[in-house]
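Hey, quick one: can you model this chain's 3D structure?
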Amino acid sequence: MSKLSLNDLKKNDVFKIVDFDDSCGNFKYRLRDLGIHKGQIGQILNKSFFGPVEIEIDARKIAIGKGMSKKIFVKKFECPIL
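Sure thing. Here's the predicted structure for all 82 residues.
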C-alpha cells in the first residue's frame, strides 16, 4: 500500500500526520520551525494546481509548498472532525 501524502488530499479533507520523508536532513527542522510534527490533526483549507497547500493545524494557518506537501504522509479521516 502506498503512502498518502498531504498533496494527495482535497480541500476540506481532515488528516492526521503519521510520517515524513526525511531524506533531506533540513526538512525535519523546517517542519519543526513551522510547528508541524507527527500526530497532529489538521484540515486542508485551500489547494490549487500550481500554488501551495494551505492547512490549518492547532488553530494556525500554514501554507506549504507542493514539494514539501509531497513529503508529509497522512491518514485521512472519512468524516470531518474539525
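One thing worth noting: The chain has one domain: 6-77.
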